[in-house]
Amino acid sequence: MNEDELHKRYWDGVPQDPLYPSAMSKMLLMDDPAAAEREGEADTLEVLALIPPLRTGARIVELAAGVGRFTPSLAALAGAGGAVTSYDFVEEFCVQNRETCRALGLDQVEVRTEDARSAVLPADIDLVFASWIMMYLSDEEVRTLLRGIAAALVPGGFLVFRESCIKGDALHPGDWPRFPGEHPCRYRSARWYFEALADLPGQVLTNAHVLQVWDDESDPNAQLAWVWQRT
User: Fold this and answer.
1) What is the helix (H) or strand (E) element at residue 195, kind and residue range?
2) Are 117 and 147 in contact (CB under 8 A)?
3) How far apart are CA 120 and CA 159, in angstroms?
């Protein structure tokens, strides 16, 4: 089984996995639903606070949306006349996101069951938002995705993304850490992402912000977030 098949099999199984009894626990891969709700809410607020002000009627793309814990907030940021296109490759997550958006009357949200690596992004995007996707991609896939995002953004548009990273300056982590179920991911360093962003026509506005809700000195990994603006 190749890496792509392993990722797909793993995530297709998460919606039915009794280890993760709530939607938030499935998104955070935490088996304690109360802790997942508490930490997930704090995480969501902290990440969203990094997004710069957008024009009314903004066009937003959300990658790896999952069940849509960020989607309604992104729809609010888009404002009147705006649009949000959310992507995820797990159909059950997309179904839940669509149902939530429908119940909230968010007609400006379109949820697409597509792999972000092969998705054709809309043109003239004001914001691309991504949470926990690049850690599942190869180095070249990340660079290709970043180039595609940069090309789709309007001048002055933003990329806001967060990733699980190793602490320290090593370019590569060596052995892959694995989630339960032998699910591989790449914990790169902040330096690696800075170098990947440096190849794009823009500038980093937020220098590897450490998300406080996950800041733990005993943890060898860190949750980092970037804000990058196309010039």
Assistant:
1) helix 190-198
2) no
3) 16
